[in-house]
Amino acid sequence: MSTDQASYPASATAKSWWDILARLGIYIVLAGAMMFPLLLAAVPPLVDYPNHLARMWILVHGDDIPALASNYVAQWRLLPNLAMDLVVPTLSMLMPVETAGRVFIAMTMGLLVGGTATLHYSLFGKPSLWPAVAVFFVYNMALFWGFLNYLFAAGLYLFVFSGWVASRGWNPFVRVVLFSALGCCLLFLHLFAFGLYGLSVAYYELARRIENRGLTWPNIIGWCGECLQFVPPLLALGLSLPDGVSVLTRYGSLDDKLRALVGPTTFGVEPTLLDQFHFALVCVFLVCAVAGRWLHIARVMRLPLLALTVAALAMPNWLSGSWAADMRLPVMLPFILIASTQVRVPRSRLFPVFIAGAVILFVLRVDSVAQTWRDYDQRFGEFRAAARVLPLGSRLLIVMNELPEAEREVPGVSSLLAVRHIVTWTHLPSLAVIDRAVFIPYLFSGWTPIEPTARNRELSVTQGHPITPTLLAESGDPEQAKKLYTGPNFLGQLPYWRDWPRHFDYVLWVDFGSVPASIPNNLESVESGSFFHFYRVIRPVVAP
User: Fold this and answer.
1) Which of 72, 225, 444, 490 has the most C-beta neighbours closer than 10 Å?
2) Bridge-partner residues for 510, per DSSP?
3) Alpha-carbon Rg of the chain, whole angstroms?
4) Chain CA centroid to CA 17, Å
């Protein structure tokens, strides 16, 4: 053998390793850029996140702080919504709770991108840079609202489904038993993630049989056998549902459906110009990709993608008392579509234009999120410093004004890229649960392991929001309060603000810098900030 012949395999191997390292480097750079905003905010301002973080604090420190134990109690039970409740307390054995929360968010982002790459490898048998495009869709509407249990579990779904695809040569019995257990894990992390997995596996296996030998009776029986893996998770679901689950289900308006449709490219309540450009770029790329045959969809994934799309369109806005159910599937479709396709780089000059546009939009997205989160972090820090005035274990009523138009602008960030949203302040008071062990009426409970103690049960709602200044004035006056509607809501829960002067110790008034024109006589100012005031409630005198 000549020297040249002997050295060729080593040269080819070295090139292969350099290729792998280069791809890995690109993934690491993109992932690092994607997660960069997490370094700038002690509490990332995702809408529901402060409420979730307060729940983590109770789970970790509820037995250590008497004032906290007087307001909330942990009641562990199997629920189809436990991702954060299982992971963050475990991480908190190694780090502070707030750090563990940010690590959980970083893990969620990583799972979505890593799961996309893993599923792509399972389907096509070779690594590719194409799944890195998934970073383009991580900052979506579900992340903005803080639906972290779902997104974390959905990221794991991509890995579990990848395992199912990769294990198609295994012993059928062993495979069904193992993935039945994994299906149960997905179910308890989040119900919708299990739904994604069930639809994906069922239609993937159906597509495989149609592709190979058609729907013969042996194939149908085999398909039914593989679907037996869903029986234990479904039985577990029936046993885990809490008593008194709401049956409220509403399909929603056309606006709700359009909002869900743009959810994968929108990081906010309504799309900014950046979100609109993002959505437009994706649509134009798909049109060009179909026309130019740039993308090849794995044949066995066409039926699952169709089933998931139909399910996304058919999903109601409210499902069994859970809001924004129709937002969950659309935000995952880009990840599944990317994983299910191979890109054939065309000679067209348009392709580099799309790549450049995607990079520019990604940089703008990360930069605007970073600056916005830094701004919120300063305001959250101001609130937490002022909240020290609250005695440990106080009951806190929250009042919120409308957000003035001037307050929508983020300093240093164009409103075309990002704006402030009033919903981001909704769960800000939950941070006082961490710092002062206070009770707030709408800390997430019911579908979580946290429940209010007996003394607070009548003041707690599983889904709620701050009251308006008008309602504060009316419900604080015993005579006017009699005229207000005080019947139960769709969950059978009474308004927590009824006769609030007798039940709450302090009022947080988020006024966004506009001093209230009228303040009830039974409120005494004790602390203030640039966008809020704390008031002590003067108890009414009870006649002997």
Assistant:
1) 72
2) 400, 532
3) 26
4) 37
Residue 534, helix vs strand vs coil: strand
Separation CA 265–CA 358 (nearest Å): 12
Could you tell me if 315 and 248 are in contact, meaning their C-beta atoms sit under 8 angstroms apart? no
**In the block, which residue shows the tokens 């502070």?**
96
Q: From CA 271, how far away is CA 262, in angstroms rounded?
A: 8
The whole-angstrom separation of Cα 341 and Cα 295 is: 6
Q: CB within 8 A of 448, min separation 6: which ones?
A: 55, 79, 81, 85
Q: Strand pairing of 506-510 and 396-400?
A: parallel
What does the pLDDT look like over 168-204, one tens digit per residue? 999 999 999 999 999 999 999 999 999 999 999 999 9
DSSP state of 78: -
pLDDT digit string (tens) for 509-527?
Answer: 999 998 887 899 899 999 9
CA distances to 289, 298, 306, 330, 414 from 285, rounded to whole Å, are: 6, 19, 19, 18, 26
User: Residue 352 carries which side chain, given as an amino acid letter?
Assistant: P
46 touches 101 (CB < 8 A): no
For residue 283, what are the CA distances in angstroms to 134, 276, 288, 369, 532?
15, 11, 9, 23, 42
Complete DSSP assignment for 121-148: HHHHSS--SGGGGGGGGSS-HHHHTT-H
Distance of alpha carbon 136 from its chain centroid, rounded? 16
Q: How far apart (Å, rounded) are the C-alpha atoms in residues 141 and 267?
A: 5
Q: What are the φ/ψ torsions at residue 318 (nearest 5 degrees)?
A: -110, 125
Of the candidates 255, 282, 261, 302, which has an alpha carbon nearest to the alpha carbon of residue 361? Answer: 282
Q: Are 196 and 332 in contact (CB under 8 A)?
A: yes
Q: Nearest to residue 157, comparing CAs of 194, 132, 130, 110? A: 194
CA–CA dist 271, 269 (Å, integer):
7
Q: Whole-prediction pTM value?
A: 0.95
Taking CA atoms, 247 is separated from 133, 490, 503, in Å, by 38, 9, 30
